[in-house]
Design goal:
Largest sheet: none
Radius of gyration: 14 Å
Strand content: under 5%
Order of helices and strands: HHHHH
Shape: globular
Helix content: over 70%
Mean pLDDT: 87
Length: about 120
C-alpha cells in the first residue's frame, strides 16, 4: 500500500472504534485530569464511531474521505478527549492523501493540532 486510501481509512476507523470499545472501561478508570469523571474512554469511542460512520459514507477520493471523517469527528466529538482525537484526525486529513513516507510528518502535525486544541495541555488528558 502506497497511501492510506479510502479502504485503509475505513478499515482503520473501524479497527480503532472496535479497539476503543474493548478498552474504554479501562481508559475510563485511568481518567484523572482535568477531573476524574471516568468518561475518557467512552468519549473517545463515541468520537471514533462518528468518524467511522463518515468514512463508510465518504466518496472514493482519499482527500475528501479524510476531510469528511475529520469533520464528522468534530461534530461527534465528546469531551476533551474527543476533541483531542478529532484534532489528530484533522491533522491527518490536512496532509491527505497520507503516504507511508509522510505518515510521521502527518502524525507530528496532528500532535501539534491536538496540543493547540487544549488551553493548558497537561499530560494525562
Amino acid at each position: 500500500m502506497r497511501e492510506l486510501d479510502v479502504a485503509a481509512l475505513r478499515a482503520w476507523c473501524h479497527a480503532a472504534a472496535a479497539d476503543l470499545a474493548q478498552v474504554r472501561d479501562a481508559i475510563d478508570e485511568l481518567n484523572v485530569f482535568p477531573v476524574a469523571d471516568a468518561d475518557t474512554g467512552a468519549n473517545m469511542h463515541g468520537t471514533m464511531l462518528a468518524a467511522a460512520q463518515a468514512a463508510d459514507a465518504a466518496a472514493a477520493d482519499a482527500t475528501a474521505a479524510w476531510a469528511a471523517t475529520a469533520r464528522a469527528a468534530m461534530l461527534g466529538a465528546q469531551g476533551n478527549s474527543g476533541v483531542i482525537l478529532r484534532q489528530l484526525l484533522r491533522g491527518l486529513a490536512e496532509r491527505a492523501p497520507v503516504t507511508g513516507t509522510d505518515l510521521a510528518a502527518a502524525l507530528g502535525h496532528a500532535t501539534d493540532l491536538a496540543y493547540a486544541a487544549v488551553g493548558e495541555p497537561v499530560e494525562g488528558t
